[in-house]
Structures are given as structure tokens and as C-alpha cells.
Amino acid sequence: MEQDWIWGLIGGLLIGTGGAVYLLFNGRIMGASGIIGSLVDGSAGNLKWERLVFLAGVVLLPVLLMPVYREVDPHITDNTAVLVAAGLLVGLGTRLANGCTSGHGVCGMSRLSLRGFVATICYIFAGGVGVLIFRHLLGVI
Amino acid sequence: MLRLVFSFIAGGLFGGGLFISGMTDTSKVQGWLDVFGAWDPTLAFVMGGAMIPMAIAWLVARKRQSSVLGVPLPPAPSREIDRKLILGSVLFGIGWGLAGLCPGPSIAALSFGGSGLYVFVAAMLTGMVVAPFVRSRLDKAVPAE
Is B66 helix (H, G, I), strand (E, B) or coil? Predict the structure, then answer.
């Protein structure tokens, strides 16, 4: 527990290295919502395979790390209504904003993008208010 | 072909990093957002750690015409702050807080997230399919300034 921040930092360095590889080799900004969203709304065009392979890597590495790793319970709520609402909001919101935690957060802020900072402030603020309301006031999560 | 190889490597680093850092654990993400409860600072270390190699990559990219594989590099970032950016990010943030999941970790956790995660991902993909229609509505609602 007390080393969580070290694992966070190491994991973060890996995430950023992934973004660096994707930029410097593939010439693309590593944004998860754009990669996923363009595949489901058909806008990926000739980048389709590149993006599918990217997602295959995202799924596969945790599978490979799992046996040597610590507890992996993702603590996902069993409240289906909450999961549906949250999924719809995340899918719609990230595609309207054209980015999520990886694209606007990691990739955007590291190039001092104004849109990256504005988006990140908005979703962290909204997330904080959301947890305050739904956990502490309404008690649904 | 090389583009596929490096895309896979990048995806692997991203997914492995999300997993190791604890970002596939919704309780750590909600813990970060829960300023009035048991606040968990881990996400700040993840974000900070990720921005270090990424900032270096941007500095390298600035000195180059194209990527190592000859792909054009992204243009300078837009500075346009519009309703779609604000509204979209606020909606995203509420959903992020509700479930503790954002797009990257929801995919990284596919192999172990269970049925709840499938429900979330199905809803997220639905939201992403609907988004282009909402976007064009928003564009029409207010004539371009």
C-alpha cells in the first residue's frame, strides 16, 4: 500500500514511453478515446489496423503481467445502471472533447497544449464533484 | 509492417503501464477524485511519470520533419476552446467519477474485469457511436463564430 506511489510512477513512465514510441515512430498522438472511437464510428480509415494492433497490445500486456503480479481486483461496481450511465458519459464525452486522460492529459499537457489543460481541469473537477455527489451525498457508488 | 510492430509495442507499454500503476483498479481512480473521503494521490504520480518521457518525445519531435518511420508528425495543437471541449470533458469527468474507468484502463482490464466491465465498455462504445451525431447537433445549434 505505501509503495503504491512508486508503482504509479513506474507505470506512468511506461505509459509515457508508450506515448513517446507512438509519436516518434507512428507519428500519432496516443489517445485511447480517439483510437477506440475511430474504430467504432468508422473514421479510422487506413489507420484501422495500426489502431487494432495498438489495442491488442493494451489488452495483452496485463495478461502477461498477471501471473507475476499482485492483487488484480478492479473493484468494479455491480450496479448496472451506474455502469451504463458512466460508460455512455465516458464514450460520448471523450469523443465530443476529442480526447481523454491519455490524449488531453498525458500527451496534451506534456506539450503545453491549452486544450489539454482546459480539458484536464474540466474532467478532474467534474469527476471530483461527481464522486462527492454520488458517493457522499447520494451514496450510490 | 513496422508501423504495426511499433504500434503494438506502444500499446503494450500503455496497457502494461496502466496495469502496473494501479489505474485499472477503479478504487484508486475514485480515490484520487474523492477529495472529501480517503484521498489517494497515486494518479498524480502516474500522470506525472507519464508526462516525463512524453515531454521529451515532444521536444525531439519538434526538431524533426517526420517520424522515424517517415510518417508526418502532428501539427501544432489547436488553441480553440469551444463548447464541445468543455461540455465533453465535463460529461467524461462525471462518468469517470461514477465508475472509476476511462477509455484506456477499460481496455487494459478487458482480460480480468468481468461482466461489469463488459457492461461499461458496451455502453462506452455506444456513446462513441452516438457522439458524431451529438457533435453535429452542437455545431448546428450555434452558427460558427
Answer: strand
Q: What are the start-end ranges of the H helices in A25-75? A: 32-40, 48-65
Contacts of residue A98, defined as CB under 8 A and 6 or more positions apart, other chains included, come to A34, A104, B84, B85, B88
pTM: 0.96
ipTM score for this prediction = 0.96
Q: Where are the domains of chain A?
A: 4-137
**Could you say which of A13, A92, A127 has the minimum Cβ distance to residue B96?**
A127
Backbone phi and psi for residue B37, each to the nearest 5 degrees, phi listed first: -125, -135
Report whether pLDDT(B140) > 60.
yes
Give the minimum alpha-carbon distance from B66 to chain A in angstroms, rounded to a whole number: 7
**Residue from the list B37, B61, B88 with its beta carbon closest to the beta carbon of A96:** B88
pLDDT of residue A38: 98
In angstroms, the separation between the Cα of residue B144 and the nearest Cα of chain A is 16
> Do B64 and A26 meet the contact criterion of CB atoms below 8 Å apart?
no
Cell of B7: 504500434
**Is A71's pLDDT higher than 70?**
no
Q: Of the candidates B66, B102, B123, which has its C-beta nearest A27's C-beta? A: B66
Residues 73-92 of chain A whose Cβ lies under 8 A from any Cβ of chain B:
73-78, 80, 82-92
Q: Best residue in A21, A60, A136 to probe B by mutation, most B CBs within 10 Å?
A: A21
- Beta-bridged to residue B72, according to DSSP, are B66
Average pLDDT of chain A to the nearest whole number: 96
pLDDT band at A77 (very low <50, low <70, confident <90, very high): very high
